[in-house]
Automatic annotation (TrEMBL):
Limits of the Aminotransferase class I/classII large domain: 30-381
Pfam families recorded: Aminotran_1_2 (PF00155)
Gene Ontology biological-process annotations: amino acid metabolic process
Cofactor(s) for this UniProt protein: pyridoxal 5'-phosphate
Family stated for the protein in its record: Belongs to the class-I pyridoxal-phosphate-dependent aminotransferase family.
The entry's keywords: Aminotransferase, Pyridoxal phosphate, Transferase
Signal peptide bounds: none
Gene3D superfamilies: Aspartate Aminotransferase, domain 1, Type I PLP-dependent aspartate aminotransferase-like (Major domain)
Name this polypeptide is given: aspartate transaminase
PANTHER family: ASPARTATE AMINOTRANSFERASE
InterPro entries: Aminotransferase_I/II_large, AspAT/PAT-like, PyrdxlP-dep_Trfase, PyrdxlP-dep_Trfase_major, PyrdxlP-dep_Trfase_small
Reactions performed catalytically: L-aspartate + 2-oxoglutarate = oxaloacetate + L-glutamate
GO molecular function, one term: L-aspartate:2-oxoglutarate aminotransferase activity
Length: 387
């Protein structure tokens, strides 16, 4: 059967293919250490789980508003005010079933043939996939190792044309762990004054995963772009809730009703008990968040130290998220071939840099959302393989 051309342009996220292959090898009896998938290895905190169970027992089994429970939208606004000292109208908060939904909605709104959308490269692969689906032209914004894997405002601004409709930003970043410093964000926002037709999607899903005292610079704190800013965030990473499929976004006035209508057409509403769990996450104790970040920090340091001992490998220290993006160009391997052989021969799952964009060649991604023992064993296997 013939489908529209857009469906032939849809890409995918290779991390899930690697996860499936690692599972298949494990089922065959092979010992596989997975440093490929980007999800915390911690359990969702117990008080959050209990809130969902209580919601079910209390009879919250029906539809909720398409935009999300009012009490949850109010809690999101309060949390953003607490952390960034910004006023957010709960009537501009949208509760969605996962962070990708916000990407889908925003890119669908602005992407069409003849339009350009700027996105980070290396970056989360769904950005480019969705841009191509809409028929828009994907314009990569280079994310370079020499910039600490943050974007250059000057380079980004130079790519804007009259055809540019949307810019996608991500800091702290997947796959590189880079954090764009405030001075670069300041330069970007100042430069965007000359391009009032351009909307911004700021993916801040890792906003609480920063290290060494590095502050998070939220685009919400720049009032001059609030009327064209879409904020993407959620619970998956911060609260170890990837499988709960919970996200939220903040939309400017002119776009909010459009995404509400999309929700009515596409997903009706978000799972009701999950929303009560999300409420408990924001309003309850934050001890587990602090503990997870402390564990990730220790793993980050260990991962970087061990990677820099590998022959032909160098790795700068990531400032955010839970990924390392080592440079493997000195090994003589192409990145995807190395990642494949590390899985098949050494039993270590990683992701080849080109799965995150053309500028990912020469790098592989490792997630240190795994135990220190497993990280040590995995990188020892990598050492043996490369030696």
């Amino acid at each position: 059967m013939k489908t529209i051309a857009g469906f032939d342009r849809i890409g995918e996220e290779n991390a899930f293919a690697v996860l499936a292959r690692a599972g298949a090898l494990a089922a065959q009896g092979k010992d596989v250490i997975n440093l490929g998938i980007g999800q915390p290895d911690f359990r969702t905190p117990e008080h959050i789980v209990e809130a969902a169970i209580k919601a079910l027992r209390d009879g919250h089994h029906g539809y909720t508003p398409a935009t999300g429970l009012p009490v949850l939208r109010e809690a999101v606004a309060a949390d953003l005010h607490r952390r960034f000292a910004v006023e957010v109208d709960p009537e501009r908060v949208m509760i969605v079933p996962g962070g990708k939904v916000t990407m889908f909605a925003a890119i669908l709104m602005f992407g069409e043939p003849g339009a350009d959308i700027l996105y980070p490269d290396p970056g989360f692969p769904i950005y480019r996939s969705m841009i191509e689906f809409t028929g828009a032209r994907p314009i990569p914004v280079p994310i370079r190792e020499e910039n600490g894997f943050g974007f250059s405002a000057e380079e980004l601004l130079s790519l804007i044309t009259q055809q540019t409709r949307l810019i996608i930003l991500n800091s702290p970043a997947n796959p590189c762990g880079g954090v764009t410093p405030r001075e670069e964000v300041d330069k970007l926002v100042a430069g965007l004054a000359a391009h009032p037709q351009v909307a911004i999607l700021s993916d801040e899903i890792y906003d609480q995963m920063l290290y060494d005292g590095e502050p998070h610079v939220s685009l919400l704190t720049y009032p001059e772009i609030r009327d064209r800013l879409i904020l993407l965030n959620g619970w998956s990473k911060t609260y170890a809730m990837t499988g709960w499929r919970l996200g939220y976004s903040v939309w400017p006035d002119g776009l909010y009703d459009k995404v509400r209508k999309l929700a009515v057409n596409a997903w009706s509403c978000v799972n009701a008990p999950a929303q009560y769990a999300a409420l408990a996450a924001l309003t309850g104790p934050q001890d587990a968040v602090v503990e997870m970040l402390s564990a990730f920090d220790a793993r980050r340091k260990l991962t970087v130290d061990l990677l820099n001992e590998l022959p032909g490998v160098s790795c700068i220290t990531p400032k955010g998220a839970f990924y390392a993006f080592p440079n493997i160009s000195g090994t003589g391997w192409k990145a995807k071939a190395l990642a494949s052989e590390l899985l098949e021969q050494a039993g270590v799952a990683t992701i080849g840099g080109p799965d995150f964009g053309t500028l990912g060649e020469g790098y592989i991604r490792l997630s240190y959302a795994n135990s220190q023992d497993n990280i040590r064993r995995a990188i020892e296997r990598m050492h043996d393989f490369l030696s």
